[in-house]
């Protein structure tokens, strides 16, 4: 009987030791190992494919620098539900949390971080023009708590491609939210290039996604031969409606966001957002290790990406040049 009791006690002790080891193993990289867990907040405009790709790039960059989500990195995500008015409160909330770093995606989120974030360092990406958003006067002379990666769209390549897709084009239409600094800057640059090309640029501004369909319809009545939409966050959230209006008017729709081609654009000349996010992830790792954002110049990185929609081009009766098809990434 004593032998049985001793065996039972021994088995119980073994089970207890195994449980302790298992608990310790599950906490690797956290309290059990003594390794610090870094906390970052990702703030973006709304869920969409381009932002998802850029976020993955940031996390891949951090991973390669040894910051691994679930081990020594905690990631908190928040988005503004596609409403610019929600962004300031979102950034203020993150600024009040126990975060080591805030990562804003999109120009409206960066603009809010420039004015609302007072306590935490910031590394941004998925932004066309950080200076237009208020990040600083130059890539070297910027706000002391902010650095990141800007990625301005390849506008000259965009309009060179428009010329190939629509030979003889005389007027180009565009719509955008005039409250977005990124859109104002891109359209301002576009006006110069359009004038140089000898075209007319027809513009309609919107304030919300609900206005996008009607705006596209209005543009289709202005004797344009193509519709162009840049990376305006409001327009992209209503992209299906814009594409529907363009299709009904049999207008080729050209965009700067490759992720949206399958939703009704004929061609996109845009940016590889994973690469931009990855570069920001490397900067984020430097800040987490103790470097001050003020000592890190803002980077400019825009890896060109060309995507075409051959099925839609056939539907619209547009022949895409073989050279353009050969150049396409997808």
Topology, please?
Blueprint: H1 2-26, E1 38-44, H2 49-64, E2 73-79, H3 87-95, E3 101-104, H4 107-116, E4 122-127, E5 146-150, H5 155-165, E6 171-177, H6 181-197, E7 200-206, H7 212-220, E8 226-229, H8 233-237, H9 239-248, E9 253-255, E10 267-271, H10 273-288, E11 299-300, E12 304-308, H11 310-315, H12 322-327
Parallel strand pairs: 1-2, 1-3, 4-5, 5-11, 6-7, 6-8, 8-9, 9-10
Antiparallel strand pairs: 10-12
Percent in helix: 40-55%
Q: Mind telling me the CATH superfamily name of the largest domain? A: Response regulator
**What's the average pLDDT?**
90
Give the percentage of residues in beta strands.
15-25%
Domain module count = 2
What is the gyration radius calculated from CA atoms?
A: 25 Å
Number of strands: 12
CATH top-level class of the largest domain: Alpha Beta
The CATH architecture assignment of the largest domain turns out to be 3-Layer(aba) Sandwich
Q: For the terminal residues, how far apart are their CA atoms?
A: 76 Å
Main beta sheet: 6 strands, mixed
Provide structural commentary.
- With 330 residues, the protein is an alpha/beta fold.
- The protein has two domains: 146 residues, Response regulator (Rossmann fold, 3-Layer(aba) Sandwich), CATH 3.40.50; 139 residues, Rossmann fold, CATH 3.40.50.
- It contains twelve helices and twelve strands.
- A six-stranded mixed sheet has the order 7-6-8-9-10-12, with helices on both faces.
- Strand 6, helix 6 and strand 7 form a beta-alpha-beta unit.
- Helix 7 packs parallel to helix 9.
- The longest helix is centred in the first third of the chain and has 25 residues.
- It is elongated, with a radius of gyration of 25 Å.
């Amino acid at each position: 009987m004593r032998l049985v009791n001793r065996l039972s006690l021994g088995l119980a002790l073994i089970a207890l030791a195994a449980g302790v080891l298992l608990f310790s193993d599950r906490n690797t990289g956290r309290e059990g190992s003594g390794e610090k867990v870094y906390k970052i907040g990702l703030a973006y405009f709304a869920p969409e494919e381009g932002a998802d790709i850029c976020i993955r790039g940031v996390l891949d960059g951090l991973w390669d620098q040894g910051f691994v989500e679930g081990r020594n990195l905690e990631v908190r995500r928040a988005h503004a539900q596609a409403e610019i008015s929600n962004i300031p409160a979102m950034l203020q909330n993150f600024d009040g949390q126990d975060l080591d770093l805030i990562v804003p995606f999109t120009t409206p989120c960066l603009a809010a971080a420039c004015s609302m974030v007072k306590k935490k360092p910031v590394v941004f990406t998925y932004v066309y023009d950080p200076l237009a958003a208020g990040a600083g006067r130059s890539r070297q002379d910027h706000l002391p708590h902010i650095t990141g990666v800007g990625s301005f769209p390849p506008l000259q390549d965009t309009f060179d491609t428009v010329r190939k897709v629509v030979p003889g084009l005389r007027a180009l239409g565009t719509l955008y939210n005039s409250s977005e600094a990124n859109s104002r800057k891109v359209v301002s640059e576009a006006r110069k290039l359009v004038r140089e090309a000898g075209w007319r640029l027809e513009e309609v501004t919107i304030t919300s996604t609900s206005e996008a369909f009607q705006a596209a319809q209005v543009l289709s009545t202005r004797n344009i031969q193509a519709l162009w939409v840049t990376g305006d966050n409001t327009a992209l959230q209503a992209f299906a409606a814009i594409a529907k209006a363009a299709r009904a008017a049999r207008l080729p729709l050209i965009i700067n966001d490759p992720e949206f081609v399958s939703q009704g654009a004929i061609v996109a000349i845009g940016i590889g957002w994973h690469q931009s996010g990855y570069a920001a992830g490397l900067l984020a790792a430097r800040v987490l290790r103790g470097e001050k954002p003020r000592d890190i110049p803002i980077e400019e990185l825009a890896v060109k990406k060309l995507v075409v929609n051959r099925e839609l081009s056939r539907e619209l009766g547009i022949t895409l040049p073989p050279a353009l098809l050969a150049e396409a990434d997808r």
